[in-house]
Design a protein that fits this description.
This protein is mainly α. The protein has helices at about 20-60, 60-75, 80-100, 120-125, 130-180. The protein has one domain (about 20-105, about 145-180). The protein contains five helices and no strands.
């Protein structure tokens, strides 16, 4: 089972620490799948945020129109006016961040798992250099790094959009409470 010929030595580890090539490839494939699932999860979160914003805009449409008119027609600055402006900024910021979550991202990669690397990636697949397990592992590693960068960017905007959505709701409620006094 641990025949040195079947072991690859990821990251220049000594042979006694090297994984079985099957285990290593399975681990890389699992990491790749988990990251791809996380990219889809970020896109789903954006869809939820858009749905909540749409429901909020429909549910509060009369209040929103009144708030927008209040901002435009107000002659002096008041607490309600400041809260209304903050609400509008939070709303637009949330919509912008939710949009940035789903905007396609292209990360520079030469991996055959990345569509943008083709047709050159096809040539590398036809004529792989070195051991096949090393070649495949490097392809996975390159794509994992690219997908991980995409995940970090997407989830940064998910965080911003979620915070903006909460701020939007709180600012609207506070503005209504202050206005009702």
């Amino acid at each position: 089972m641990n025949d040195p010929a079947t072991l690859i030595q990821p990251f220049d580890r000594p042979p006694e620490e090297a994984m079985n090539s099957y285990e290593y490839m399975y681990h890389l494939r699992t990491i790749h799948q988990v990251l791809a699932d996380q990219v889809r999860m970020a896109d789903q979160k954006a869809a939820y945020i858009f749905s909540f914003i749409t429901a909020m805009l429909i549910f509060w449409s009369a209040d929103l129109k009144k708030g927008f008119n209040f901002i435009v027609t107000m002659q002096t600055v008041s607490l309600v006016w400041v809260l209304s402006v903050a609400f509008v900024l939070a709303l637009f910021g949330t919509i912008l961040c939710a949009t940035l979550i789903v905007v396609p991202r292209v990360e520079s990669s030469q991996s055959s798992l990345f569509w943008g690397a083709w047709p050159a990636a096809g040539e590398r697949l036809r004529h792989p250099k070195g051991k096949l397990t090393d070649f495949i592992a490097n392809e996975y590693l390159q794509d994992i790094e690219s997908v991980a960068r995409i995940c970090r960017k997407k989830f940064r905007y998910v965080r911003y959009a979620q915070r903006g959505f909460v701020a939007t709701i709180l600012l609207h409620i506070i503005a209504l409470a202050v206005e009702a006094r």
